[in-house]
Amino acid sequence: MSNLLGDTAVLTGRSLTHIGRSPDTIVTTAVTPVALMLLFVYVFGGAIRTGTESYVNYLLPGILLITVASGVAYTAYRLFLDLQGGILERFRSMPIARSAVLWAHVLTSLVANLTSVAVVVLVALAMGFRSGAGVLAWLAVAGIIALFTLALTWLAVLAGLSAKTVDGASAFSYPLIFLPFISSAFVPTGTMPGPVRWFAENQPVTSIVNTVRALLAEQPVGTDIWVALAWCAGILAVGYAVATAAYRRRVS
User: Fold this and answer.
1) CA–CA separation, 31 vs 12, rounded Å?
2) Is the dihedral of CA 123, 113, 230, 187 positive or negative?
3) What torsion do the CA atoms of 7, 10, 16, 17 make, to the nearest 10 degrees?
4) DSSP codes joined into one string, 37-63
5) Mean predicted confidence (pLDDT) in 6-17
6) Which of 220, 175, 204 is nearest to 72 (CA)?
7) Which of 176, 155, 115 lies closest to 239, judged by CA?
8) Which of 144, 126, 133, 128 is nearest to 209 (CA)?
9) Which structural domain range is residue 86 located in?
């Protein structure tokens, strides 16, 4: 275990150094969510009725999830480049824990995506977002976003291991970015037609968005928080199991 932790720390430092040398990755990840937030708040916001005084307050939780969905594509991209560049074969010849390679990419994704989320929150504050939530509520929001990031990152690891081309490695995130649009992220699900409403109310993004929104608005979270945690934990468990199995086959 000590070897795994030490090796993971070293390899994570390597990945973070690469990101530090090209911070445009974080900027690029935040550009699309920020553009969507500007578009919906200043162009469509006046025509959308959500029952809240500030549309940016209503919109922000969904934008944060889009930020994460955009960012995890870079994990698949970086892992694919490592595979194509032969770096994993070099690591196999060294006395390091094999799983440290994957964990380094996962932890790098967590740090990079939470940084992008912080950038989006700062832009939202400049646009008028306000919350009276306390420290515990903000920590709960950060925990849910982090868990969601870990869950999607393991799916990204699987995509990076399975892709045949560099474009295919990152293309898996497109459906994930689209998913918040069919949820309560932009409009209340009650305004949607029957089949669309059923899908929106029973997919993972809606429960996560509702939980984050309630925490930031200092409202009761109800059962949404348990549904959100169950979705995140389930996706994380499945993604981790399938990705590690694919990795063992790849390096065997």
Assistant:
1) 25
2) positive
3) -150
4) HHHIIIIIGGG---SSS-HHHHHHHHH
5) 78
6) 175
7) 155
8) 144
9) 2-251
Count how many domains the chain has: 1
- Residue 46 is predicted with a pLDDT of 73
Q: Which of 86, 113, 98 is nearest to 4 (CA)?
A: 98
Q: Check if the beta carbon of residue 68 is closer than 8 Å to that of residue 152.
A: yes
Inter-helix orientation angle 224-251/99-126, to 10°: 140
Dig out the tokens for 202 from the structure.
Answer: 């029973």
Residue 108 identity: T
How many residues can be counted in the chain?
252
Structure tokens at 7: 């090796």
Q: CA–CA separation, 134 vs 205, rounded Å?
A: 24
Cβ proximity of 43 and 202 under 8 Å: no
Quick one: tokens of 199? 């899908």
User: What tokens appear for 99 in the block?
Assistant: 């799983």
116-135 confidence digits (pLDDT tens) = 999 999 999 999 999 888 99
Tokens for 140?
């709960």
Q: Which long-range contacts (CB under 8 A, 24 or more apart) does 237-240 make?
A: 239/151, 239/152, 239/153, 239/154, 239/155, 239/157, 239/158, 240/154
CB 81 within 8 A of CB 167: no
R_g over Cα of the chain: 19
H/E run at residue 234 = helix 224-251
- Nearest CA to 65 out of 144, 170, 156 is that of 144
**Which of 33-37, 57-61, 78-82 bottoms out in mean pLDDT, i.e. has the lowest?**
78-82
Instruction: Report d(CA 60, CA 82) in Å as an integer.
Output: 34
Structure tokens at 82: 């490592």
